[in-house]
Design goal:
heterodimer; A: 112 residues; alpha+beta; four-stranded antiparallel β-sheet; two-stranded antiparallel ribbon; B: 403 residues; mainly alpha; two-stranded antiparallel sheet; 14 helices; 68% helix; globular
Chain lengths: 112, 403
């Protein structure tokens, strides 16, 4: 099992959800986060005073998938979150040791 | 007693109170960090409540008691002698007291913009009360209560000097004494809710009809023209500020547009009983351009953290209008004409003298009051409190619970 963390632009969340559903991923967790990478924040101007805003709003999507689904899931996120502009985000894939479904107690891939 | 006049001033009084609560409070609250939103709202609300009481207890007497050329004395402490049948001009004196009270509320509330995000709440309340008694009320008497500036012939219809110069200059002094916010000018957080600022500014625009047209103290042609020039000036100030931003940054911002509107309104205030529509247009445009320029100058060159630009927008706008009225009061420029024996030169001299006296009065006494109060009240919050925000530290509550 793998755990996938994707940092994406907030307005791409629906596209990513639909793309993941299209490759059979049936659950995810999304949260509003702030961060920066090469985009290095943005400058805002109020009454002529320039404010350097380093942390930009992003959405973090977390999904747990079976090994066999990793490549398809990563590709689905990458294509659906892509605007071909700086700040599109990152995808991280981690090993996942175990998973438990709270209601039934099922473990491993059956719990996903 | 005149029923029409009374009805209009009853309405105007409500409009001007609405300018502070919630107009100015929201205008300012949107411009600070989310962790300070309640402290700004609370500053304005607390000032409204406490100044109302001090106005009743003593300030009204100092401003509008019979007194002499310098102050009104203590003859009307606790509204002594003011009953159901007392009259002030063509309206009940109780109503005149209320109408003027709403001005006494918004003037110290304007100063709040200078010290947001870093001042102790107790100091704000104590300072505001003493400031109204010692700085504001005497100036009201000099200009509107038959004092020496009125005798000189100073034109200040609705408070360019009385409200905006006093508040603007005092704000600048307090901002310098208190020091800059941590990180100013480059590492402070931007306004958390410009939408609130626009809503508050819009209430100010509407409320200003009561402020300026109400200052006619009658339902007549002077009130109608005051409302007209007030509106034209607000619109022109908005356009002027936005064009300045377009030239400089290629973008016209909402915060800039509403700030230009306030600049236009502050500028027309002293002139709103004297000038015609062309005067309103010119004063609004001038207010937008000049206040924009001074805002940049104070922040970027002087590096003074007058956080919400009270001096640049109100102090400068009020002074500018007080100067320009010397020209646009002329009947040839659409105004209602000079007083007997006055011309542009002599009027300008009076106007500049009035501004200078009131500016020095406000600056010196604000310095003295703040210096003395610092011995009894905490002035600036500590670094941790400033970083975490004043809402929790000063008031034990939060504006937004998802933070």
């Amino acid at each position: 099992m793998k755990f996938i963390i994707a940092i994406i632009k907030p307005h791409k969340l629906d596209d990513v959800r639909e793309a993941l559903a299209g490759v059979g991923i049936e659950g995810m967790t999304a949260s509003e986060v702030k961060g920066y990478g090469r985009q290095k924040g943005q400058t805002e101007i109020y009454r002529g005073a320039e404010y350097q805003v380093s942390f930009i709003p992003k959405v973090k999507v977390e999904i747990a998938v079976d090994d066999s689904a990793v490549d398809a899931a990563v590709e689905a996120i990458r294509t659906s979150a892509n605007t071909e502009k700086i700040g599109d985000g990152k995808i991280f894939v981690l090993n996942l040791e175990s998973a438990v479904r709270v209601r039934t107690g099922e473990t491993g891939s059956a719990a996903l | 007693m005149n029923g029409a006049d009374t009805a209009w001033i009853l309405t105007s009084t409500a409009l001007v109170l609405f300018m502070t609560l919630p107009g100015l409070a929201l205008f300012y609250a949107g411009l600070v960090r989310a962790q300070n939103v309640l402290s700004v709202l609370m500053n304005c609300f607390a000032i409204a409540a406490t100044v109302s009481l001090i106005w009743f207890f003593a300030a009204y007497s100092i401003a509008f008691g019979d007194g002499n050329a310098w102050w009104g004395g203590f003859g009307k402490l606790f509204l002594s002698g003011v009953g159901f049948d007392s009259e002030a001009g063509t309206i009940p004196e109780s109503l005149f007291f209320m109408f003027q009270m709403t001005f006494a509320i918004i003037t110290p509330a304007l100063i709040v913009g200078a010290f947001v995000e870093r001042i102790h709440f107790g100091f704000v309340v104590a300072f505001s009360l003493i400031w109204v008694l010692i700085v504001y009320s005497p100036v009201v008497h000099w200009v509107w209560g038959g004092g020496f500036l009125a005798e000189m012939g100073l034109l200040d219809f609705a408070g360019g000097v009385v409200v905006h110069v006093t508040a603007g200059v005092s704000a600048l002094v307090l901002a310098i004494m208190l020091g800059r916010r941590r990180g100013f000018p480059h590492d402070i957080q931007p306004p958390h809710a410009p939408g609130l600022t626009m809503i508050g500014a819009s209430m100010l625009w509407v409320g200003w009809f009561g402020f300026n047209a109400g200052s006619a103290l009658a339902a007549d042609g002077a009130a109608g023209m005051a409302m007209t020039v007030t509106h034209i000036s607000a619109a022109a100030g908005t356009v002027a500020w936005s064009v300045m931003e377009l030239i400089r940054y290629r973008k016209a911002s909402l915060v800039g547009a509403v700030t230009g509107m306030v600049a236009g309104l502050a500028t027309i205030t002293p002139a709103s009983g004297s000038v015609g529509p062309i005067g309103g247009l010119v004063l609004g445009l001038a207010g937008g351009v000049v206040c924009y320029t001074v805002t940049q100058f104070v922040k970027q060159r002087l590096k003074i953290d007058d956080s919400l630009d009270v001096f640049a927008v109100h102090g400068i706008g009020g002074a500018l209008g007080t100067i320009l009225v010397s020209f646009f009061v002329a009947t040839s420029l659409g105004g209602n004409g000079f007083a007997d024996g006055m011309d542009t030169g002599s009027q300008l001299g009076v106007q500049l003298t009035g501004i200078a006296i009131v500016a020095v009065w406000s600056a010196v006494l604000t310095f003295v009051i703040a210096t003395v109060l610092k011995m009894f009240f905490k002035f600036r919050v500590d670094e941790d409190t400033e970083a975490q925000g004043l809402d929790l530290a000063m008031h034990g509550e939060r504006g937004y619970h998802n933070m």
